[in-house]
Amino acid sequence: MAEQLKDLADDRALLGRTSTAERVSDILRSRIAEGYFPPGTRLSEDSIGGALGVSRNTLREAFRLLTHERLLVHELNRGVFVRVLTVEDVEDIYRTRRLVECAVVRGLGEPPYGLDGLAEAVAEGRAAAREGDWKGVGTANIHFHRELVALAASERTAELMRSVFAELRLAFHVVDEPQRLHEPYIARNVAILEALQGGDREKAESLLAGYLDDSLERVVEVYRRRVGEDG
Question: What confidence tier does 207 reach under pLDDT thresholds 50, 70, 90?
């Protein structure tokens, strides 16, 4: 925990002069998604508040916001913990992803599309794979899907999916088989990108739907086993 808190203290500069619960929650959301605070971790008000240099009230409001996003859970007389998802949670996350991401592709309109962000995420994933950094590949995959959602040019959709992707990372941290989980999707990201570069929305949507279905099956298979083992 000491190392995580030291890194968290480095984020204090991000708060600027207007330290708000929203900015604190942004920092903590990112840190949770990155695995600094794995599922099941108890979050200490004193330690985190001290690292970020914020008041107890501000931190509690940030916790409340992240609890609303289903990233944290408050347990009576025990404190605040990073949430451990159920299998049903994971299935619902993928159901939401399929509804939103496929709809984004379907509604793109006429090409050409602004695909620079997707191309950068593909390059990021390939570079991480060459280094054997499979968690980095997972991060690149999330970036790919964020950029895909960004094609909708909708702040509300992006905000919704920001929370969904953060929840997804909670599941990935429990699965903890990053190469097996993420490696197959490097080539599938490329295929979706190439379909969109060719202006073929229908093909891209079909590839994406199959991608998400296969990913759900793989994640749930391992997640169910891991949650059962931990229980």
Answer: very high
